[in-house]
Amino acid sequence: MNIKKSILLRVRIAFLFVVLFAIAVVVKTGHIQFVEGEKWAAMGERISFDYKRVKATRGNIYSDNGSLLATSLPFYKIAFDATLPKDEVFNSGLDSLAGHLSRFFGDKSKTDYKRMLKDARATGKQYVILSRKHIDYQDKKVMMRWPIFREGRLRGGAIFEKIDVRYRPFSGLSGRTIGYINENDKGVGLEFSFNKQLGGQDGYAYYQKIAGGIWKPVFDANNVKAVEGLDLQTTLDVNLQDVAETALHKAMLQHNADDGMVCVMEVATGNIKAISNLSSDGHGNFVERFNFVTGQLFEPGSTFKLVTMIALLEDSPVELNDSIDTGNGEYTFYNKTVRDHEEGGLGRVSVQDAFEHSSNVAMAKLVDKHFGLRPQKFVDYVDQLKLSQPLGVQIAGEPTPKIKRPGQKGWSGISLPWMAYGYGFEITPLHTLALYNAVANNGKMIKPIFVKSVRRADEEEEEFESEVLNNKICSSETLDKMKLLLEGVVERGTAKNIKGTHYRIAGKTGTAQILENGRYTKKYITSFVGYFPAHAPKYSAIVLIKNPRGWYQYGSSVAAPVFKEIADNIYARDINLHQPMDVRKFKLQDVLPVIRAGNQQELTMLCNSLGISSHSQTEEEWVRSSREGNGVNWKKSIAGKNLVPDVMGMTFRDAVYLLENSGLKVFYEGKGRVKQQSLLPGGRVARGNRIFIKLG
Of 647, 672, 670, which Cα lies nearest the Cα of 659? Predict the structure, then answer.
């Protein structure tokens, strides 16, 4: 009995605890519902509803002629409010709509889509995502004609949520300069540097969180509409950009190089017309990973000798015709040896020859002699030429040049001689280009420009003009000498392999050893920087190619040909760069142009344009010519329906037109005018006849 009583007691105690727990649950529920109801309702509202940021549509980025470089294309996420369509609309269009969705997206069967739509209708779902795939605007237009959807947003239930996707029509062209921006507003290039202008003003919209963690937009009077971003008008020329990038890519492939960069600038304005930065991906391809031109520091090598010569000509008695002994191409400063690239050295040469043939020994000896006791004076010229501070360009991320100074840690007796030919300090390629551009621009140094204006549609909000960094980098006398030296490099010196035939190039080659882990390696950075045409400079450009492999590892053989290819293409396309021909030199007396046969009206117009007297003996459309003194007579030519025309001497275009109009099938070879025809003129044309003409 004691055991039975013990068990009953335990059961009663357990039952009592259950009853008490149930009472506590009921009390707590009542307290939450009636006492704290408003508090928890407000919290539920905050969790289920929220104002979310609506990204504004980013502005466009344009080239100098208005070509799109970057734009935002509208894509859409498609959802469905199953409560809106009327029963007759839903039931009659369900089967067809399910079929359209299945065929378009291809991710579910028609039966699956039909079941999804019916379930959503039965449970009163107001927001069902139909597919995770995004559609473009043209797809949206097609879908809006489908059953049910064609009734519109409020009666058909189709919900199209716009999502902007950044698109570049020219793909990777100048990719790092145009740049990108990510979800956290971090990025590179113009997209990042002008994010405030491009990004516009974000809006806010009311969203409801529904099953599956999906946020559904809800109309609310307090929604704030987003304001679209502004557009950028850049200085880039897409045609020139394509030429520059193609030339660089070809050279990188040829020399199996690690990195390469090219930048083309308009001399008078500082406008950057083309910029490309390529890096090897290790699999034989080249991609843009980093903007070396604006964001990477390099030892400039021999291209810095321009600064050395400016300092010498401005602040020492050195003249171009002075002689300097370079010996066998080696000279020792303290415990370090300076070497020339030419085996055996140049011997005793003029200062001009030493520069044109890029003698390191000559530059080091001259600087040590005239600035050895006053090294700060030489560094002052580096400062005056704006090479020791960032240029302040429009692309974020420009580094500060690393320039050693007398008295600072790391400065020694060899620092100045090494600096004379471009070692021991680092600047960006854009610094070097800006300096050479200043020589071409009669001494005026201007800041490179990437963006000309910020616009809203056709209205200009902000304009950027050329900013002068230095009104005159040196005296006019020194400037004239520097132009002579830079032309001499191409005419007689290290870059004579790119000497032009129709125009002159001025510039300087550079070859610098790459410093790795504190030691100079047998890897090189090859470069060429200059301007053209030398007599009236319009463009300047710099080319750097890092670590070319193979026999050719100098600026003259690796970088300079890229410069020449770009310059040739620009010269061929820009008629304003061509000097007018001397008419007296090419004009021959009493010589008429080749006019043999053709359309009388066109030939008469041609003669009138050339100032040649012409007379006609016929009203026929097609004529032949005969010379009469200093004039031309037009005579009737054999031509007519079903007759073999006389096309001897005609241009290919006219000949084919006449022959095919006569019912003949034409075969030809050669180029130029017709000099032979296989069928005699005047003969009858039978159906399917063929004629062979030879051009020459």
Answer: 647
Q: In sequence order, which residues have a C-beta less than 8 Å from that of residue 108 and are 6 or more positions away? A: 101, 102, 116
Distances, alpha carbon 346 to alpha carbons 109, 131, 320, 481, in Å = 82, 75, 16, 22
Per the DSSP assignment, residues forming a β-bridge with 599 are 622
Q: Residue 124: is its pLDDT beyond 90?
A: no
Does residue 439 have a pLDDT over 70? yes
Helix, strand, coil share (%) of the chain residues, nearest 5: 35, 25, 35
Could you tell me the pTM of the whole model? 0.72
Task: Give 281-300 pLDDT, tens digit per residue.
Answer: 888 889 999 999 999 999 99
In percent, how much of the chain has pLDDT > 70? 91
In 168-319, at which residue ranges do the beta strands (DSSP E only) sit? 180-181, 187-188, 203-210, 214-218, 231-234, 259-266, 272-280, 286-287
Kindly report the number of other CB atoms within 10 A of residue 241's CB atom: 23
Measure the CA dihedral 580/586/590/594, to 10°: -80
SS (H, E, C) 146-157: CCCHHHCHHHHC
Q: Which two tokens stand for residue 161?
A: 């949520």
Close Cβ partners of 445 (under 8 Å, ≥ 6 residues apart)? 385, 386, 434, 435, 437, 438, 468, 469, 470, 473
Strands 323-325 and 286-287: unpaired
Q: pLDDT at position 478, please?
A: 96
pLDDT for 213 beyond 60: no
As a whole number of Å, the CA-based R_g of the chain is 39
> Residue 660 belongs to what H/E stretch?
helix 652-661
- 26: exposed, middle or buried (C-beta count within 10 Å: 0-12, 13-18, 19+)? exposed
Q: Are 274 and 237 in contact (CB under 8 A)?
A: yes
Give DSSP secondary structure letters for 78-122: EEE-TTSS-HHHHHHHHHHHHHHHHHHH-SS-HHHHHHHHHHHHH
Q: Return the pLDDT at 392.
A: 94
- Count of all residues that appear for the chain in the document: 696
* Contact present, 368 and 416 (Cβ < 8 Å): yes
Mean pLDDT of 441-447: 96
Of residues 284, 246, 279, 251, the one with CA closest to residue 264: 246
pLDDT of residue 133: 85
